[in-house]
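Explain this fold:

***
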Amino acid sequence: MSGLGVLSQLLALLTALLLAPLLSGWVSMWRHWLQNKSAPGLLQPYRMLHKLFHKDSVMAEHASALFRFAPYVIFGCMALASAIVPTLSTDLPLSPAADAIALVGLFALARVFISLAAMDVGTAFGSLGARREMLVGFLAEPALLMVLFCASMISRSTSLTTMVETLAHRDLAIYPSLLLAGVAFAMVSLAENARVPVDNPDTHLELTMVHEALILEYSARHLALLEWAASLKLFTYSCIGLALFFPWGVAEANAPVALLLALPVLVFKLALGGIVLAVIETASAKMRIFRVPEFLGTAFLLAVIGLLVNVLLGVG
């Protein structure tokens, strides 16, 4: 384990923790601008986290230890997921654990805990949100796995670092499978991060909300951890998309100069991705929950077609 590898790992984790709320604020600001509304400040997510961390927590009378413990598990899962994705460098001490299946497993573990915590108090909204969250996860996780497998066929490995190294240094060629996988990944990312058209992060309507229904009973530091975890999830999904489909700029092992340049490149790519996300949300309408299976089913089929294209073309 090299000293530079430890430094790159710590820098990647610190970057995720600090930039995740900024990315959420950037997307929210552009959404308001595109809708001709007064936009909140770019640093509004940081102000919200600061306010919540300094408030006194209020718990439901019959809340169990699971309800209190779940926010820490969810935040830990999202922080670890952001650490194993090669955002700045492929020289990561956690690289042996940076497997595509392990990454999807971390997302699934966080989903199970937030759903159980939502049902723990026994409110109608929490149970409703938990059922919808599990429905989305049941459909989104296979599609995400197929997307990752589509990229792993090119690199012949399910290791995220190996995938990024292979894709970043491959010969200039057109991979139709990656185009199909990219569309599928965008659809899965919208669903997993509670964005329009699957969910609306700004709504509090009982019949439409999913993510907000899950965290309705939380307050203070527990709510801050959940909101921070949601920002980390959006950041991690954005970095997965950039690592798989736009991997240029990620530093390799023993490349300190490239590691310094990787951070501004990452910020630039995230800024462009945030604008694209805001445009997609502004141009889309919230769909009914009964249409979500069709939406995610289409993403799964696109990813599977990408796998078949790789097989037919003899890729990997």
Notes: The mean pLDDT is 89. The radius of gyration is 19 Å. The chain is about 70% helix and 0% strand.
